[in-house]
Amino acid sequence: MDTNQNSSNSDIFSGIEKLGFNINTSSLYEEKSDQTKDETKAKNEEVDEASLLYDKEQKCPACESYFKVRSVKTNAPRLVSRDSDFFIHYSNINPYFYDVYICPNCGYASLKRDFEKLRQHQIEKIKSDITPKWKKKYYGITYDVDVAIERYKLALLNYFVIESKDSSKAMSCLKLAWMYRLKNDQQNESLFLSQALEGFNRAFFSEDFPIYGMDRYTVMYLIGELYKRTGDFDNAMKWFSKVLTTPSVSERLKDLTRDQKDYINEIEASQAKASSADTDDITANTEKENTDTKKRGFFSSLFKK
Ligand SMILES: [Zn+2]
């Protein structure tokens, strides 16, 4: 919808392509200005992004129909940086946007690496609880962060309905948190980080490793990191200490863990300095507790059955 509206603002002739006319202009009268050049440049960049994608034929394990998934070409994304909770920033194209597969026929959706792992009772659940409600949607040639959020949420809904492992729900929540980080939406980022934390915490004690390619120690670190990012420094320190006192952990992971401990120590030192300004702090803490209770209520059924 939005895409149509946007293009109609800048493109007088949009909508008549199906009649055979494909003319792109934002103005009937002006001479070609710098602005027009910029728009042409923007369109070319869009074309470039599309050229980094291809359609992959995929069979749906739930309804057995074939469909095409937008897939990122190998080596197309360029790694820019890595956050301490393993989120990777890319240039060129963002592979996270294309990480969810959705069957347009039956509504089954999951993270790419889980798509073919369906059990018979889960297929029955999709047929009874997902497909009858499913309305298929076309997401365009290239996806953006809002499309990605919608697709991750549909995957999360599927995992929830078919009673997938806690780690699957946790990983979807972590990726949703990352998408909200891209939007600078801290409230939703923190909501999904705490859901990811709960899921990984459960998975740590009940599932086999590796979990999404992470060994036991990496998940230990991640749990500490999620506690850190959601403001529970005591628990973060406990998990970080477990990583540091385990002999078989790689030096690379230990270094990363020490960096996060240092970060917490710095924050706590600066908080201790500021603690003389008292009354405002009490109000802020009460507000935080209220929000936490609300979040818990909203999501309480995601992991607890
Ligand atoms: Zn299907």
Give the tags.
mainly alpha; 2 domains; two-stranded antiparallel ribbon; 10% strand; binds zinc ion
What does this structure look like?
TPR repeats lie at residues 217-250. Keywords: TPR repeat. Pfam families: DUF2225. Residues 270-305 are annotated as: Disordered. The protein is mainly alpha-helical and 305 residues long. The chain has two domains: 45-209, no CATH class; 215-277, no CATH class. The protein is built from ten helices and six strands. It has helices at residues 2-10, 34-51, 120-130, 145-161, 166-182, 186-206, 216-229, 233-244, 251-274, 279-299, and strands at residues 53-59, 66-72, 78-82, 88-91, 100-102, 109-111. The chain is globular and about 70 Å long. It starts with a helix and ends in a 6-residue tail after the last helix. Residues 1-9 and 282-298 have low confidence and may be disordered. The site of zinc ion has 8 residues, from loops.
SSE diagram, text form:
Elements: H1 2-10, H2 34-51, E1 53-59, E2 66-72, E3 78-82, E4 88-91, E5 100-102, E6 109-111, H3 120-130, H4 145-161, H5 166-182, H6 186-206, H7 216-229, H8 233-244, H9 251-274, H10 279-299
Bound molecules: zinc ion (ZN).
Residues 60, 62-63, 65, 103, 105-106, 108 line the site of zinc ion (ZN).
